[in-house]
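Predict the structure of RhtB (Resistance to homoserine/threonine) family protein.
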Amino acid sequence: MVETLATLVGIGFVGQMSPGPDMMMLVRHSMGRTRVPALACVLGVSTGFCVHVCLSVFGLAVLLRQNVELFNAVRYAGACYLLWIGAQCLRSRSGLNFSDGAACAAGGWFEGFRNGLFCNLLNPKVTLFVLSVFTQLVRPETPLPEKLVYASALVVETVAVWMAFVLLLYTPALRHVLERRQNVLNACAGLVFCVLGGAIFVM
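Done. Here is the predicted structure for RhtB (Resistance to homoserine/threonine) family protein.
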C-alpha cells in the first residue's frame, strides 16, 4: 500500500507540474495585490480535481470514457470556457489589480474560485489522467477504504502543491516580474487558453 501510495503521489506531482490550464489560471489570478483570488482559485481547482478523483474511485469515469456523446459534451463545454477565459485575458489591459481589500474578498474570491473550479472540472483529460493512473496502480478488487486513502492523498497533494505554487508566485522576485510584465503575461495567458480551447475542437 505504501509503495502504491508513493507512486500515485509521485505521478500526481508530475502531472501537476506539467504546464496546463490550471497552472495558467493560477498565474493569472496571482497578478493582483492580494492572495485572496489566487488562493480561492486553488480551492476551486482542488474542488474540481476532487470530483474527478471521486469519479475514478467509484467507477463513474469509465462510463464517461465509454459514452462518446457525454464525453464530447464535457470536452466542448470545457473548450468554450477556455476560449471565454482567453478572450477575457486578451481584453484586459491591466490584469487583475485589486486596490480594495473588501472588493477582493467579495468579487475577487468568487471569480477566483469559479474560474479554478470550472477550468478543472470541465477538463475531461483530468478525469482520464486520474482514471489511467488508478487503473494501472489500483486493482478493481482493492477495498473501498484503501481506494479512499489513495484518493485523499491525491487531493491533499493537489491542495498543498498549488498552495505552495501560489505562495512562490508572491515572493518578492517573482512579484516584481508579475507586476512589471502584467500586460504581457495576461496576453500570453489569453493566447494559451485560446489555443488550448481551439485545439480541443480540432482534435
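Residues 94-107 have pLDDT under 50 and may be disordered.
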